[in-house]
Amino acid sequence: MEDDIEWRKTHCGRMDHGGCALLAGVRDNVIVKIKGDPCGFLNRGYVCPKGLASPGRLNHPDRLKHPLRRTGGRGEGKWERISWDAAIETIRENFQRIKEAYGARGVAFCQGMPKGIEHFVLIRLANIFGSPNVVSVQDVCHAPREVTGLHTCGFYPVADFHLKSSLALVWGSNVTSTNEEGEICSLLLDQLRSGTRMIVVDPRRTELAKRADLWLQLRPGTDAALALGFLNVIIEEGLFDEGFVAAWTHGFEDLARHVKGYPPEKVAEITWVPSDLIREAARLYARSRSAAIQWGNAIEQHTSAFDTARSLICLMAVCGNLDVPGGNIQANEPNILPLGKFVRADLLPNKWKEMLHTSHHTIPKLMTVPPAFLRKAMLEGFPYPIKGAYVQCSNPVMAYADSRTTVDAIHQLDFMAVADIFMTPTASLADVVLPVATQFEFNDIGHYGLGHGYILARPKVVEPPEACWSDIRILNALGRAMTPKEYWADDPDELLSALLRPSGLSYRQFAEQGHLKGEERFKKYESGGFKTPTGKVELSLSTAEKFGLKALPGFTALPADDPDYPLVLISAKDPFYMHSSYRWVKSLRKRSPDPVVEIHPETASDLSIHEGEQVAIETRQGAITQVARLTEEVHPNVVNAAYGWWFPEADITAEDTWTRSNFNILTSASELGREFGTPKLKGIPCRIRPAD
Questions:
Q1: Which of 16, 26, 458, 530 could form a disulfide with 444 if both were Cys (CB 3.0 to 4.6 A apart)?
Q2: pLDDT on residue 423
């Protein structure tokens, strides 16, 4: 019976970057049904399996419902229940003690991927407290594309699927599975139905690859070489946009000479993509006006992230696809409070001089600390010690490369507080654990600060358990306790109102409207140039010498063959989970019960591996076990392991809970890309065998 159900509108969040408009059916403060809103700005009625299952987060019997304080050794699982006043005071007291001994910079404020405005409230808290160190996984997700865009063309070039594209070049992106950064798959699928052609570049034959006009199955980690091969063909054959190149690019002749070193025959040897297919794909992209490159964060999970992003932006530019309808655009933000004002950047004007990664000479404009540099400060005190950490919306034990080093680093902290829904491997090592409200239980705004030119309303649908607070409320309370109260609100929802105030909308009015989008304006460079030192797209960076960067994108040689580890390891996100989250949601776990590693049947036969059996995956860094799935969707030389796996049904204090199948046992942070501190998460030499 649905007669007694009240349908409430909101937007999905925290299952991925979100963006799907939802109708939540509520009865007696319980969500009994979820369905897609056919009027949704991004999804038009579509909703993924995670979104449909998302109410399962709210009523799990093991959900955290009270603040906890550690009573035993770190990680022993001994806790006492405390009040919120006691929790806030414990955190205040410990962070103040660390601040007095080491300075405010001795406390790090840590977040996973931004999930709402809580990320920016966290930055606000850090700025007001005086710490420059907001730590995030943006080194492997978003920052290489955005920051490289700022240096190359002055903006973050996002794919415009709201207007017609002749061609979509989907590069390292799997939007039918992950819906990354609001690029909901329904927009791309609508384009395909209306005649848009598609090229897919991916080591795996994804669902999109099966629908593509051309599928380029490249060797993992060789994206930069392939993009340079495209540029070779386009420039050598005169397929570039001569007018745009002449008027609006800097360093074209340098780039043209440089890419002569990447002919398709040479690139084919590097990438495993046949030379004739490279030529065909490059010609198709160049001749399709306008064309959009939908680039995923897979290209950012390698030490060559900067070169790859640079190469792809050069490709957009020489073909005239920057800031044109249906191309890669500079999205115009709606009339809302600018990010710098919201986070109170004015209170920490020399922040960039003090951030941990400044001492590692990363690229300018990188505004969150890469995890590898956080751990170095925790373990070695370089460039200065980090002794306290606040962690929200993140599970660093599972998410950071080299999980064992992460655990070792946490043990060196004087104090750590974690806010989460569930007791995770990271939360189990904390001194204080805070129970958070889930999405649907508080008012929020989606997509603020992500560069896509719109924000989405996420009004509260049901009330949370009495002692569960939203991240925004927690941060506001910590701000009032740890910093001058004048910077904080009596009601946390006032922070949402402040963000919206320039628009003239109240939060209620915004929620009724559903979304707020910036004005559609294109080719803005024609009136003001590009926001770079030359005023043009910098195919050759004019600031290269100043910042110690390479002027032109290149390709670093492949690692030497390792006969002991002859296969190439990658990972892919599970469509039923978000990173390490929600394996405790019963309906999702039923859909994806085990960590699965994809192996080509020929490879499996050679190694006596059978479908469904446990296999050991080994790298120079470590070994894990996962369940074999034999499929021709991967190359015979490639192994695709499951990412983010731990076992919430097991004993949280047992090491095996988070080591057994955890992909980041296999990764290392010993080799990093200099520009972003990016470790190698793709293209790792490995071997597999039947498990003992």
A1: 458
A2: 98
- Identify which of 12, 16, 175, 6 has the alpha carbon closest to the alpha carbon of residue 579: 16
In terms of Cβ atoms closer than 10 Å to its own Cβ (0-12, 13-18, 19+), residue 111 is buried
Choose among 472, 683, 490: nearest CA to 568: 683
Which residues are paired to 668 by β-bridges? 680
- β-strand pairing of 68-70 with 291-295: unpaired
Q: CA-based Rg of the chain, rounded to a whole angstrom?
A: 24
Rounded distance between C-alpha atoms, residue 308 and residue 312, angstroms: 6
At residue 385, what are phi and psi to the nearest 5 degrees? -75, 145
Q: Which residues contact 315 (CB under 8 A, 6 or more apart)?
A: 227, 230, 231, 234, 285, 293
How far is Cα of residue 444 from the mean position of the Cα atoms in its chain? Answer: 19
pLDDT in tens, 436-446: 999 999 999 99
pLDDT digits (tens, 9 = 90+) for 229-243: 999 999 999 999 999
Tell me the whole-structure pTM to 2 decimals. 0.97
**How far is CA 683 from each of CA 13, 296, 518, 637, rounded to the nearest angstrom?**
31, 16, 39, 11
Instruction: Note the residue count of the chain.
Output: 692
Exposure string for 544-570, b = 16+ CB within 10 A, e = fewer? eeeeebebbbbbeeeeeeeeebebbbb
Structure confidence at residue 556 (pLDDT):
87
Residue 652 phi/psi, 5° resolution?
-65, -20
Residue 182: pLDDT band (50, 70, 90) is: low
Tokens of 577: 């989970």
Convert the pLDDT of each residue in 345-360 to its tens digit: 999 999 999 999 999 9
